[in-house]
Amino acid sequence: MDSREGSAPETPETPETPERPERPERPGTPEAREAREHAAGEAREDGETCEQRETGDPGEPREPGEPGVAPLEAAARRALWIEVLVVLSVGWFGSYYYSITDHVWPETVIGPHPFWYTYLGWLVYYLPLIALILLVARRAGDSWGTLGLVQVRPLADAATVGACFFGDHCARVGYAVFLLPFIKRFLPEDDPAWWLRHFPAPQGPWQWAFVALPIFVAAFYEELLMRAYLVPRLVKLLGSPGEALAVSAILFALGHVYMGFESALLAGLFGFVYGFLFLLTGRIWPLAVSHALNNLYAFSRDWTSTPLAGTPPPW
């Protein structure tokens, strides 16, 4: 008897249908853009380019421990250095030229100019530079808070102003006690009449009232540039708050050589203290107010104690 009798007939096997290859996404579709962005993000994480991922080419062998993001970090660092150098070239390095020529070729300095010409010129010079620094910083991603331009808090800001005066006074005492005895034999004594020839003294109460405005604008500009803009960027570039404060203080001091070498050293200490207070508080208004009051006091003291003095200040 045939064993196949009574058994169910075998079902013939159906040939498998070959899988259809996925249709490549069109370059312009949202899905394609999302896929490219996803691949680029993964490539940044492991240092592999999109072309290497698509073609399977491993590329050049990478040294052990070499981070894949190093080229991007280097590019960002280079771009930030270029930005900082351009801003300083426009807004600060020009003062070095005048400081040098003032001491090397003093006969080339013309002055003093008329009062209104000088201090209206300060406003014409500093206000566009303030706008330029704010534009550059904002386009670079800085918020108003990052620049220290936050809402005024009277009590906290008054305490910061007091800290500015206290820190500046301590720096001056430390300079006079520890540094001046060793360097005074090498540095000529500052003569206020030397640098005051650039700044005509006020004559009368109206001029004294007006001169406070450009002095405040100049102080705000220096705090915005040398503290709010420069110090945080130097922290990113140098990786150390201490080094950032030292470099910014040196740059600030070099911009005041026209006042004399001793005054330039004091300006450097001043810049270090104010830079530290900006990193500590993140507020620029009290620094600008303290800076302006300090300058106004220095101007009025030297104006009334030199041959170039104007009328005594109203206070």
Tell me what you see in this structure:
The protein has one domain. Helices cover 65% and strands 0% of the residues. It has eleven helices and no strands. It has helices at residues 30-46, 50-55, 70-91, 94-104, 115-139, 154-183, 192-196, 205-238, 241-254, 261-281, 285-303. Helix 3 packs antiparallel against helix 8. The N and C termini lie far apart (134 Å). Mean pLDDT is 79; it is low at 43-72 and 309-315.
Low-confidence regions = 43-72, 309-315
Give the helix proportion (percent range). Answer: 55-70%
How much of the sequence lies in strands comes to under 5%
Derived structural class: mainly alpha
Radius of gyration: 33 Å
- Overall average pLDDT: 79
Q: Sketch the topology as an H/E string, one letter per element.
A: HHHHHHHHHHH
The coarse overall form would be: globular
Number of strand elements:
0
* Tally of separate helices: 11
> N-to-C terminal Cα separation, in Å?
134 Å
Largest sheet: none
**Domains (count):** 1
**Quaternary status:** single chain
